């Protein structure tokens, strides 16, 4: 640990990072970022080159990363994940195995990057800046090099073409989860335009793996892969067969080759996770270039922990980070198939940049909930109570998540269920509300 890092607290690192500009995909210079990564010694190649798996898409990226990391770990591979957003602690974004980076390591590498950035700017790049996401990405590369991992799994932030994670030239696999309409202010207002941005993580001659997409998106992905001579594999849902859905698990099978079918199990009631798990299974088989036993695949899937996705945070209280139209559709499908002898209630909290009117309409029209409440939460991006009132004109509106959850808990009987959905930034407020004082 350097002398400089000894004088820095973890809280001051967080405060500094949070003061930086957020995602700026339209303004980012990937060539400059590549030069800075090279200036640092290309840490993703130290002490030897890591295998890089790059995961893009709209919904399911984080789950796919987590399932894949767990399968590789069970196969004896030392694996690291860079993901976003974090739910409670910023260090969640940088994980080695199942463990997030320690505060001491985070502080040490933060100090190093800040010092190197100052030197780089002085020597080469003038006004080069690292926004929030890019700074953490560079930190992750250094932390992973120090841990000497074998596989680095990188989750795209926004888009793909101009995402900081796309600064790495060499990759071993590109994965695209389900693509939908999100971040349209940056990526375009059609599925085809968004798919073009996300498909740009594919590299020449490197295998690519995609979830089943809408034809408009898959056509773009297939065309881009062809221009790169990149073999494209598609996890077609026709090869997924659901056998049994319970309130806490799903039994399903996936035909990953014409002559190979794996019987799989997930410890979640979320039907949409079967597609993400199948992506991870197929990816692991491509990466390891060998058959992996059904028992090993299941051990990995059962090991995976990814909070905030149909996550039972307390008895009868389930949180899901559905926050765009496609995600809400998947959430409603999951809620609809859950067996509940009582009533189903909903608490919603979203951010202003989403199509909140459409999301509110889908939730209200679903007919799944006896009552819907909506809340503001502790983020400048949260919808205001006034906005929530406009979108949910018959719902009870609350100034905070604790008030909204408390209201529904006052109505809940033992056989009832409370669902919470919307922004993942709402998660920390719900954790605080359900944690005994």
Number of strands: 17
Structurally, the number of domains stands at 2
User: Residue ranges: pLDDT <50 for 5 or more in a row?
Assistant: none
- General form: globular
Secondary-structure class = alpha/beta
**Could you name the CATH topology of the largest domain?**
UDP-N-acetylmuramoyl-L-alanine:D-glutamate ligase
Widest β-sheet, arrangement of strands: 4-3-2-5-1-6-7-8
Largest sheet: 8 strands, mixed
Beta strand %: 15-25%
Would you tell me the overall average pLDDT? 92
| C-alpha termini separation | 36 Å
Q: What is the count of DSSP helices, taking H or I runs of 4+ residues? A: 16
Q: CATH superfamily of the largest domain, please?
A: Mur-like, catalytic domain
CATH architecture of the largest domain: 3-Layer(aba) Sandwich
Under CATH at level 1, the class of the largest domain stands as Alpha Beta
Bin the helical content: 40-55%
Give me the Rg, rounded: 22 Å
Give the helix/strand layout.
Layout: H1 3-6, H2 10-19, H3 30-39, E1 51-56, H4 61-74, E2 79-82, E3 94-96, E4 99-100, H5 103-125, H6 132-147, E5 151-155, E6 173-176, H7 184-187, H8 191-199, E7 208-211, H9 215-227, E8 232-235, E9 240-245, E10 250-257, E11 260-266, H10 273-288, H11 294-303, E12 311-314, E13 317-320, H12 325-337, E14 344-349, H13 356-365, E15 371-375, H14 385-391, E16 396-398, H15 401-411, E17 417-422, H16 427-434
Parallel strand pairs: 1-5, 1-6, 2-5, 6-7, 7-8, 13-17, 14-15, 14-17, 15-16
Antiparallel strand pairs: 2-3, 3-4, 9-10, 10-11, 12-13
């Amino acid at each position: 640990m350097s002398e400089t890092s000894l004088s820095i607290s973890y809280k001051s690192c967080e405060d500094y990072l949070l003061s930086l500009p957020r995602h700026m995909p339209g303004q980012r210079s990937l060539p400059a970022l590549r030069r800075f990564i090279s200036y640092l010694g290309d840490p993703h190649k130290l002490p030897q080159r890591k295998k890089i798996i790059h995961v893009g898409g709209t919904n399911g990226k984080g789950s796919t990363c987590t399932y894949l990391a767990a399968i590789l770990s069970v196969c004896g591979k030392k694996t690291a994940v860079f993901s976003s957003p974090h739910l409670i602690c910023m260090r969640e974004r940088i994980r080695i195995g199942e463990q997030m980076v320690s505060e001491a390591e985070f502080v040490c590498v933060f100090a190093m990057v800040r010092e190197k950035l100052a030197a780089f700017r002085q020597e080469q790049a003038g006004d080069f800046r690292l926004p929030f996401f890019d700074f953490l990405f560079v930190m992750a590369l250094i932390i992973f090099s120090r841990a000497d991992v074998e596989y680095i799994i990188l989750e795209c932030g926004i888009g793909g073409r101009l995402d900081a994670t796309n600064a790495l030239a060499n990759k071993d696999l590109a994965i695209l989860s389900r693509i939908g309409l999100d971040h349209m202010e940056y990526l375009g207002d059609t599925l085809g335009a968004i798919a073009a941005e996300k498909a740009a993580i594919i590299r020449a001659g490197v295998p690519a793996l995609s979830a089943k997409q809408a034809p408009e998106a898959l056509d773009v992905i297939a065309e881009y892969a062809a221009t790169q001579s990149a073999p494209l594999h598609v996890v077609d849902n026709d090869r997924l067969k659901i056998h049994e859905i319970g309130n806490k698990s799903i039994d399903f099978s996936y035909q990953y080759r014409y002559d190979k079918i794996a019987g799989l199990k997930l410890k979640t009631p979320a039907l949409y996770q079967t597609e993400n798990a199948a992506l991870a299974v197929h990816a692991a088989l491509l990466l390891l270039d060998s058959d992996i036993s059904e028992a090993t695949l299941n051990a990995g899937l059962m090991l995976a922990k990814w909070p905030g996705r149909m996550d039972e945070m307390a008895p009868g209280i389930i949180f899901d980070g559905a926050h765009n139209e496609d995600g809400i559709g998947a959430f409603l499908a999951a809620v609809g198939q859950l067996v509940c002898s009582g009533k189903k209630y909903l608490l919603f909290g979203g951010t202003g940049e989403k199509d909140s009117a459409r999301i509110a309409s889908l939730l209200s029209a679903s007919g799944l909930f006896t009552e819907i409440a909506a809340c503001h939460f502790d983020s400048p991006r949260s919808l205001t109570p006034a906005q929530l009132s406009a979108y949910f004109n018959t719902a009870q509106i609350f100034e905070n998540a604790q008030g909204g959850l408390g209201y529904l808990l006052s109505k809940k009987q033992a056989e009832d269920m409370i669902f919470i959905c919307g922004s993942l930034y709402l998660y920390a407020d719900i954790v605080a509300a359900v944690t005994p004082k």
